[in-house]
Amino acid sequence: MSVAELKERHTAATATVNSLRERLKQRRQLLLDTDVSGYARSQGRSAISFSPTDLVCCRILQGHTGKIYSLDWTPERNRIVSASQDGRLIVWNALTSQKTHAIKLQCPWVMTCAFAPNGLSVACGGLDSVCSIFNLNSHVERDSIPVSRVLTGHKGYVYSCQYVPDQETRLITSSGDQTCVLWDVTTGQRISVFGGEFPSGHTASVLSVSINNSNSNMFVSGSCDATARLWDTRIASRAVRTYHGHQGDVNTVKFFPDGQRFGTGSDDSTCRLYDMRTGHQLQVYSQQHDADDDEVPIVTSIAFSLSGRLLFAGYSSGDCYVWDTLMAEVVLNLGTLQNSHESRISCLSLSSDGSALCTGSWDKNLKIWAFGGHRRVI
Predict the structure, then answer these.
(1) pTM of structure
(2) Of 186, 202, 210, 370, which has the most beta carbons under 10 Å away?
(3) 86-94: Cβ within 8 A, 24+ apart
């Protein structure tokens, strides 16, 4: 068969796939009676009243000399770890703004970081394609802590890492090699690989993972193939379900507090809420943009409040929208407040007790936002 014939067959196959995908999308839409906000409005519901004084910047954590790419809170909420292009992991006391550790990394191109559930170690990964573990209790200088374990096996950049809740010895990573991996941190061995050669896996770099706190066997991943996929760690051979809808890279995924839904954020400037069990898209969270606007902001990171009523979304524009998840309305934009970030918001995370939000930015700063009178309803 000639090259021209192969190209012709490939073009025809691509057209068939796109046609089937569009038909599937239309069939899915027919199964949906309405979205979340439409139903809420039919029931007479209204958006939360949220003022600029209900979420204020109470601390600015300064110390990084490069763009910040990732952050994570400890479960007890008192400490934050951040990863920056300056090649350092910094562990902060969130109550005093003091640095407790400043770990110099062998590879400065770090993309992700995470606290172990017990708060005694941190993990990070990046362009060196490995995940490095550091023991914070090492009896050495706080800026020269040696690597206690290196998890090797990925064949692409490590974009995301997260410890399995309540399991200090289990960690999941996602990579540019189109796979996710479940690791035994104690031995450094891979327990399971998700995707790769399996046909139901991602077909592009996997940028984010989120583990279900209600069932730690389940996790969701977001990818440059514009999909999110649900995985069961007990069934590594295939994805449980694939979720379509985005028109760009899925940069971030996060489970809803009830463990039955999850949110996504994408290069297409939208956040979306999916039902984990049915696969249906429940809601799209998007702002209107001018048709000739070449700088449509992308969604870089998301987090839900403890009740799930609020969705926090960071954007490449430096904005951070607080969405009412029920009404699909923006109730506050942290980018318009005093002490807002001056550049792209690259990461954000909510403290375990829901009392504070931390945002990280390419402006080299971390900011902690404290909630006021609306804590009881979020």
Answers:
(1) 0.89
(2) 202
(3) 88/64, 89/113, 89/122, 89/124, 89/134, 90/63, 90/64, 91/122, 91/136, 92/61, 92/366, 94/59, 94/351, 94/356, 94/358, 94/368
